[in-house]
Amino acid sequence: MENEQNQKRIFTFGETVYDIVFKNGKVISSNPGGAMLNSAVSLGRLGLPVSLISELGKDQIGADIIHFLNSNNVETKHIFRFSGGNTALALAFLDDENNANYDFYKFYPALRLDGKFPVVGENDVVLFGSFFALSPKVRKPLMNFLRQASKNKALIIYDPNIRKSNVFSNIEEVGFLSENIAIADIVRASDEDFLNIDPNVNSQEKAFRFIQERDCDNLIYTQNGHKVDFISSNFSFGLPVPKIKTISTIGAGDSFNAGLIFGLCKYEITLSNVHQINMETWKNIVKTAINFGSHVCTQMGNYISESFVKKNH
Predict the structure, then answer these.
(1) Total domain count for the chain?
(2) What range does the domain containing 199 cover?
(3) Is 4 contained in some domain?
(4) Position 2 in a domain
(5) Which listed site, 29, 58, 61, 157, has its alpha carbon 20 to 30 Å from 200?
(6) Residues 274-278: contacts with CB within 8 Å, 24+ apart?
(7) CA 74 to CA 32: how far, in whole Å?
(8) Closest-CA residue to 100 (of 36, 52, 33, 43)
(9) pLDDT tens digit string along 220-247?
């Protein structure tokens, strides 16, 4: 199979859910969600060629999500529709600081991600992550896809996005995490991610050592709206995060990832030159990511707004 087009394409690969958000016992919003969908929608609104690789039930919610993605310029032909189950639901409960705790309702069939995957080329970008990327039930198709993308020299970004509820249940998942880091060219993770992975990994230096021991040399380390550190084998720096009035943190990290990819595309970064980026360029890319993530915290949506796109594109 040949690359479908010569221009840079973006693929986000992960679980899709339908978010229902509660505060003080009442539903305040509902919309399509899932980390990789959120990033894809922000990128689609920017007009970038993005495709979501995921799975949905052949139910009404699944159909509504497909329509929503198409209306936001996200390619949906690599979303697998299944029978014998339903599209996953995520109930998000906002606390007084508008941070979310989740309950998930998932009804998947035995056979997952069964179908034809796209062929990824060397000008392409792949984003994957969350606990979906550690699930044994989708491990084989996920890794087959990532290995093909790595072989074809795509730029691969991994966001572990490990919540407290996702504490590792077996040694197999720990091995999957190491494999995910090893195949990635950039890891974007929060301080909470690393603490949930290993309580001893409690600083940016230890986090970088953790991923470097697993053969990745570029870390973007976010610290819950306070600071973002970039660490590589060549240099490191930290950037502050502006203080804002937070409405919801749902989608903040996912929009940060979209901003990261937008910046990489803007500066024409590929696997061939990612290790040659100078500090000033990396600062500009990370500033863009911070801007995206901060904006999403000021609204109820999981993705950058149309007004934000007009101001920043």
Answers:
(1) 1
(2) 10-301
(3) no
(4) no
(5) 157
(6) 274/155, 274/185, 274/186, 274/218, 275/217, 275/218, 275/232, 275/233, 275/234
(7) 13
(8) 33
(9) 999 977 899 999 999 999 999 998 888 8
